[in-house]
Amino acid sequence: MSATLAPSPTEAPAPALAPRERETLRHISAGRTYLQTARHMGLSTHTVDAYLRRIRAKFNISNTAELTRMAIALGL
């Protein structure tokens, strides 16, 4: 009888970013404000905030510094 082990947290695949989430993260990590990002992407600042909240939830990130560090790690 073989036991099935659940994958460890390090083996679990990272959540995928949607293209607009990736683009939003790239702008914010480059030092742009929500307003600058929104204008460049043709969105409202509320939508930019929503994208960033989704990214934070997906990766369990609590602040912009961590978002920036993640963006650098992803090569954005």
Structure characterization notes:
The protein contains four helices and no strands. The protein has 76 residues and is an all-alpha fold. Helix 1 crosses helix 2 (34-41) and helix 2 packs across helix 3 (45-59). Mean pLDDT is 84; it is low at 1-9.
List keywords for this structure.
single chain, 76 residues, mainly alpha, 58% helix, disordered N terminus, Sig_transdc_resp-reg_C-effctor
| Strand elements, count | 0
Q: How many angstroms does the end-to-end distance come to?
A: 46 Å
Which sequence of SSEs, written as H and E, runs from N to C? HHHH
Described by strand count, sense and barrel closure, the largest sheet is: none
Strand content: under 5%
Structural class from helices and strands?
mainly alpha
What is the fold's blueprint, element by element?
Elements: H1 19-29, H2 34-41, H3 45-59, H4 64-73
Brief rundown of the structure:
It contains 4 helices and no strands. With 76 residues, the chain is an all-alpha fold.
